[in-house]
Design goal:
The protein is mostly helical and 320 residues long. The protein has a domain of 131 residues. The protein has 14 helices and no strands. Helix 7 runs antiparallel to helix 12. The N and C termini lie far apart (51 Å).
């Protein structure tokens, strides 16, 4: 039986749903694909073997290209992926995060590709914080190890429905920072820029924020990264813009100051309203908009008179 991938679904998530639909527990499905025990499906997320992709395409009718697109293979943001860990201490990261409200609202609950990134701490749809553990037994997501015909949103260790987990709050400045970072990554990847320096700066954010639990973002649990972003939101943006090419630094400052793509569009529209005095159609935040061009146009139009980056308050030192 074939199962269509969901929008932005992670390969391992699709594999788990495919297994259940065909009457196999995920742990048993690993053998069908010639994989071993343990984190067999998360490993395929990072390195989808050609013969496995070909077998899946042949048996499901899903195009090879569509299956490959579910994996994280060759992703420019690979350094920001959470490490593959079956078990982790309380303040350390697990391999997968999730939004309970997304799982609860899905007709067929599934795990999203962006939830693998250490720079993601909240759900862009529901505005709540992500979780990386079962609230009942504190285990990480382990659907790959499920040996019964149980949907993947039920904890493989204790059976708790992850879609029923309580909502986690994240302060608005931290969510704006997160959104800005996501947009910065998209812009620089779209422009074909080398983003090694960008990912290195993002990995060092716990040091900038003064978090004592670790020096690398991917090491920290989701709750620790939420606190890290909340503290980091009070810092001056120089941690991400200093010593960069002038054009790159200016684009980053504009996005950080605005709070992301959509807010930047709103600022730009308001600026044009004020200075041109002509009516305009209803705003649109179409994802097809050329954000790089928008940033450059806004930079030229405001010439430093528009939104400004936050300056640190004297004596305002946050401690981890």
């Amino acid at each position: 039986m074939s199962v269509d991938p969901k929008p932005d679904e992670l390969l391992s998530s699709w594999l788990h749903r495919l297994a259940i639909a065909n009457g196999l527990a995920p742990r048993s499905f690993a053998g069908v694909l010639g994989r071993g025990n343990g984190m067999w499906s998360p490993r395929l997320d990072l390195r989808l073997l050609p013969h496995v992709a070909a077998l899946l395409s042949e048996q499901t009718g899903v195009p090879h290209e569509a299956i490959s697109a579910l994996a994280m293979t060759g992703c420019a943001l690979t350094p920001l992926l959470l490490p593959l860990r079956e078990n982790a201490r309380r303040n350390r990261s697990t391999w997968m995060q999730y939004c309970p409200l997304c799982l609860a609202g899905d007709d067929a609950p599934y795990f999203r590709r962006p939830w693998r990134l250490a720079t993601r701490i909240s759900c862009f749809v529901h505005g709540c914080g992500l979780r990386d553990r079962c609230p009942a037994c504190r285990s990480g997501v382990a659907a790959f190890d499920q040996d019964e015909l149980v949907a993947q949103h039920f904890c493989a260790r204790c059976g708790f429905d992850l879609g029923r987990a309580s909502k986690v709050s994240v302060k608005a400045p931290a969510r704006r920072l997160e959104r800005s970072i996501d947009d910065i990554c998209k812009v620089e990847m779209a422009k074909g820029l080398m983003i090694g320096d960008l990912t290195s700066r993002l990995l060092r954010t716990p040091v900038v924020a003064g978090v004592s639990l670790g020096k690398t973002l991917t090491i920290l649990s989701t709750s620790s990264r939420i606190r890290c972003f909340e503290w980091l939101a009070d810092k001056h943006v120089s941690w991400l813009t200093a010593d960069e090419d002038d054009a790159v630094a200016r684009r980053r400052r504009l996005l950080l100051a605005a709070g992301g793509h959509d807010r930047l569009i709103a600022h730009f529209a308001d600026f044009m309203d004020k200075h041109q005095g002509s009516p305009r159609p209803m705003r649109s935040s179409s994802p097809s908009a050329d954000l790089g061009a928008l940033l450059e146009a806004y930079s030229r139009a405001t010439d430093g008179r528009g939104i400004r980056t936050k300056r640190p308050r004297i004596g305002a030192v946050r401690r981890g």
